[in-house]
Design goal:
Length: 119
């Protein structure tokens, strides 16, 4: 069986932040800028707290079967909740989406490469 790669996105909003928490998020804003966004096994947080209280975590996971995407999504949500809770950040409206990259349509460049290799 081949390994499948999943991209899991967990979105939500910060809730009831104190001024100190808001200041800490603003101080770390460059570290969590959307331009640094990446799907990683440990998860990458992005936000722009100066504009709105929304955040996004991006996780990269693997599995053997298509059904493994559900467990990967649950692990990603749990990791996002743990990160927020460990820092004392309130949150609401948590929702997740996941994509199995083996099922994703090929882009124009990928189709051209596949044709050139006789696939």
């Amino acid at each position: 069986m081949s390994t499948r790669t999943f991209r899991v996105t967990v979105r939500g909003a910060f809730d009831a932040l104190t001024e100190a928490q808001r200041a800490a998020l603003l101080a770390d804003a460059a570290e969590h800028d959307v331009l640094r966004a990446a799907f990683t096994p440990e998860g990458t947080l992005t936000h722009d707290i100066a504009v709105r209280p929304a955040f996004t975590f991006r996780f990269l996971a693997t599995g053997e079967k298509e059904e493994d995407i559900l467990e990967a999504t649950e692990r990603a949500e749990a990791a996002a909740k743990a990160w927020l809770t460990e820092r004392g950040y309130g949150f609401k409206h948590l929702r997740s989406t996941a994509e199995d990259l083996s099922q994703a349509p090929l882009g124009k460049r990928q189709r051209r490469i596949a044709r050139s290799h006789g696939a």
